[in-house]
Amino acid sequence: MRSKRFEVLENRPVNQDGFVKEWPEVGLIAMEGPNDPTPSIKLENGVVVELDGKARKDFDMLDYFIADHGINLEKTEEVMAMDSLQLARMLVDINVTRADIVGLTTAMTPAKITEVVSQLNVLEMMMALTKMRARQRPSNQCHVTNVKDNPIQIAADAAEAALRGFDEQETTVGIVRYAPFNALAIMIGAQVGRPGILTQCAVEEATELELGMKGFTAYAETVSVYGTEPVFMDGDDTPWSKGFLASSYASRGLKMRFTSGTGSEVQMGYAEGKSMLYLESRCLYVTKGCGVQGIQNGSVSCIGVPAGVPSGIRAVLAENLIAAMLDLECASSNDQTFTHSDLRRVARSLMQMVPGTDFICSGYSATPNYDNMFAGSNWDAEDYDDWNIIQRDLKIDGGLRPVKEEDVVRVRNKAARAIQGLFKELGLTEITDAEVEAATYAHGSKDMPDRNVVEDLKAAEDMMARGTTGIDIIKALYRAGFEDVADSVFKLSKQKVAGDYLHTAAILDKDFKVQSAVNCPNTYAGPKTGYQVEGERWEEIKNINNAKSPEDY
Q1: Which of 62, 75, 213, 490 is the most buried (most CB within 10 A)?
Q2: Which helix (H) or strand (E) holds 493?
Q3: What's residue 235's pLDDT?
Q4: Could you give the CA distance from residue 424 to residue 420 in angstroms, rounded to a whole number?
Q5: What InterPro entries does the record point to (predicted)?
Q6: Active site annotation includes 141
Q7: Model confidence pLDDT, tens digit, residues 329-374
């Protein structure tokens, strides 16, 4: 006979997840792998001749790049001589400020920084992350996609997402040739919801760069780096080529961050027997060496790999912390769905939500997950109320705000009409009043009429062939009667000339003023310091729509 309790437990959602025992030889170990190198460094005439137990003559291309570009050599011998446990305690000590310690953390080698964070439990990592986050105020980023690549729906969803509090928004495509329309739709919709939102379209790198240079996007992040040489070579890339691409974006005034995450090397079959966290630390040092302001990490699309091994979710938090220790903006994933368990997905997100990161999610789905073209998110549009109530319960700022239904309907309708007017002025495919009406009230693409995909793709190609740029978009919006939206897109374009939002962890407020680690640095130094949820923001978080007042009874 079977235990009926065990029969019940076997059918719980969490037991549909995949779990594996550690297998260090192939990299299936989250942290503290037995094959990880021992921290070391040797300098001769200012040149690194030994890095983490490896002589320069034996360096692979990542070792060369990290040794020559990724480490603050001024303090490296000092910090390498310090006890790792002592350094770990400095991370959680409120009497040691971020400014005090960041000069040391950026001077560590990859093996050293991995050893330091491995001394911490998850609570201690969260305490350290509270202090080490680059920007004072935490924020959030979302995905705005749909399975039909419907630009009217994208514009409406982007407007709602902006109203709900997302400071950055990202789209992608099902059909590559739809990219220009999707990029325009998310940019225009977002500016309707709240001026100053940064948007991007994640596609093949050359196309993504072209869209940015034409003024259709404001930032990029799907520029992936990896922790072993064979994975780089598999993608026909090197740290130098990634650095060149990063400079191409920056030279055109486009904010950008790299993407990495624990588990990618295991997934590609090239982990070289090292732990996931150690290899991820190498990715972060490559990012630092390229001069890139930030990173999207936290396993991201590889989350199923660390989530299947012991301490894997702890390792994900550890990689976010390492990013902050290297003085990088951290968009801390909470991205791709990885579990059947609601309890487990919330537990994974609290690691970043409670301490706050520069972007708690780098992909909260602003649509239902059936429309999420990034393989589904850990959070989607059906979780908005849960997220807002968790903020309220814990008095934390997760970047979102409660909204009124009438306000959402209003901005969705305006965004749909704006994209309708833009398409008409540019001579693109027709957007009907029926489509505008559907997008105004839609939950997802199941609520939207089908479009003529062939004609849309022809129109998108024609628009690109005509050399249409952001200036043409601004003029068309103005002619269509959306002067305020045109003004917002114009101000966003001016930011690319000024370049101020290229600074670490930069976002724009509704007045297009930059908030970054330069002018709004994290000043946490213990209780009642740093960012506090108070005043107008606390009133906003408290006043969820279904909270009753005494007069309601």
Answers
A1: 62
A2: helix 483-498
A3: 84
A4: 6
A5: Diol/glycerol_deHydtase_lsu (IPR003206)
A6: yes
A7: 999 999 999 999 999 999 999 999 999 999 999 999 999 999 999 9
